[in-house]
Amino acid sequence: MLLLCVFIPRFGRKPVVFGSTIILSVFSAAMAFAPSWPVFTLLYFVVGLGQITSFIVAFILVGGPRVLFSCLFLPVFYVAGEMLLPGTAYLVRNWRHLSLVMAVPGLACIPLWLIPESPRWLASRGRLQEAELVLRAAALENRVDAPTFTVSLSFMDLLRTKNVRFTTLILFSNTVSYFGLSFNLSHLYGNPFLNYFLLSAVELPGYVASWLAARSLPRRLQFIMFALLGALALLLILITMDTVTLTLVLLGKFGVLGAAGGMYNYTGELYPTGIRNTAMSSCAMFARLGSAVSPYLLLLAAVDPVVPWVVVGSLCLLSVVLCILLPETFRKPMPDSVQQMGHIQRSV
């Protein structure tokens, strides 16, 4: 994510997106030929670097309600891949062959190179004629007036905003909760393949519910509603029997995903255009620390199997408190400058 803050402003969205896709496919295939565990770990780390741009792409050439649609429905394809993974792993039991199969979907992204570059990035690099052509084509297609250009801001401008602290902590909590629920799969009763499929499938209604709520509910209310649902379900595991644990975990993940889906869209609405990509990349970078911490939740299960669920539920409650401190952006124009962002904060 830190590299995104540098590469996207310098090289543009398209090269970074397709470079990440190439890394994802090539190194996934290379894992099949790893001669040792250290080499496999290194290759798997590089594969993780390739999976870092999904939510940034949603803000390239879309605006208004289309940002909402793109940001919340983009993960649907991620979930579809998760749902296909256990079935594929069940049929392809050899992990080397499975690594080769996982490299194939990247080929489907080749036709997407026809998508034009971000006009705002083109303008920031002085390529005004190319930016104007892209804007005219987009305005003609959507029957609207072409937007004006804004000045690109730096990472230091981002550090001057207090919202980044709250959104970073919220996304960190959401990430720990999400991966903590996924990694703690081994402590659930039942078939592990079926459990993984169910934990992946529940993300679909989670994102759909988040999208439907975002169309009519204020951003803070939407996040608090889903986060409280997830926290309550996970904390109830303390007083229930093992036979209903899976149901509560599925309900908890539904709440966590509903909250996380809305938070990424909320984050994009909080920051001005010139710094939006940097803000989302920076917040997501620190949120990924949560994915690094979450495997250690499994160690808490040695104390008591319910402790990981309690920790995840408590983090959901913490994110609710932090969300209250953020300004509301529902049905307000997305800011194009730091001054407009400050106006949104004062109007709350």
Automatic annotation (TrEMBL):
GO molecular function: transmembrane transporter activity
Entries under Gene3D superfamilies matching the protein: MFS general substrate transporter like domains
Membrane topology note: Multi-pass membrane protein
Domain Major facilitator superfamily (MFS) profile positions: 1-331
Keyword vocabulary terms for this entry: Membrane, Transmembrane, Transmembrane helix
GO cellular component annotations of the record: membrane
Matching SUPFAM superfamilies: MFS general substrate transporter
PROSITE patterns noted in UniProt: MFS
Subcellular localization, as worded in the UniProt entry: Membrane
Membrane-spanning ranges: 42-62, 69-92, 98-115, 164-181, 193-214, 221-240, 246-266, 306-326
One protein family per Pfam: MFS_1
Keyword Transmembrane helix appears in the UniProt entry: yes
InterPro entries: MFS, MFS_dom, MFS_trans_sf
Protein name per UniProt: Major facilitator superfamily (MFS) profile domain-containing protein
